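FAQ

Q: What does a record look like?
A: Structure on top, sequence underneath. For example:
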């Protein structure tokens, strides 16, 4: 398995693991609106990551290679919809903004973990 596929698989799995841990901790230790922020933020970002992965796989798999405009159009559509959802959640006071920020950081944490894991692999592989 190539490094790209390994990274995407690891990030996809760790997204859900980090999301579950953060949501569980929020439900146990935080106010309900903070926990809802973690849950909604984590769902928004994790689903967006999955949809981006699916869009890119379809776009670069022959025989139907998509144009860059179509890929960017889908990306900006998802971005706009996510923005409206986040705006509505904050304006209607469904969530606390800090909790939402924690939830939205799930993919960043997964990518950071994946990077550290790959760096560790490369460093120890070169040390041998």
């Amino acid at each position: 398995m190539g490094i790209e596929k390994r990274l995407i698989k690891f990030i996809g799995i760790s997204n859900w693991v980090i999301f579950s841990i953060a949501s569980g901790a929020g439900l146990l230790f935080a106010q309900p609106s903070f926990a809802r922020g973690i849950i909604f933020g984590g769902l928004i970002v994790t689903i967006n990551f999955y949809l981006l992965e699916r869009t890119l796989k379809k776009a670069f798999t022959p025989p139907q290679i998509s144009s860059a405009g179509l890929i960017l159009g889908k990306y900006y559509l998802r971005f706009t919809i996510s923005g409206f959802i986040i705006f509505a959640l904050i304006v209607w006071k469904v969530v606390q903004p800090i909790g939402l920020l924690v939830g939205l950081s799930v993919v960043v944490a997964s990518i950071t973990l994946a990077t550290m894991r790959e760096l560790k692999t490369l460093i120890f592989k070169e040390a041998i």
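Q: Is there anything notable about this one?
A: Helices lie at 3-29, 32-59, 68-91, 97-104, 106-127.
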